[in-house]
Amino acid sequence: MDSLSLEQYREMVNEIIEFKNQKGIMPEYTIVNGCRIEKDSYIDMIERVNKFILEMGRNPRSVEIE
Asked: pLDDT grade, residue 55 (50/70/90)?
């Protein structure tokens, strides 16, 4: 999996937030459709999406996994 749809991305972020609220820490990784995304990667994804929204004024259609 090279990218997530906006819906998949939002679900991933919601799961990360829920985990953090329950455990008090960010998860070391998350799994989306069988694809394991490490903490450094999902943090980078969140930062890139936030930057895109600030610069473009809209949500991206998809988010690349790096």
From this structure: very high
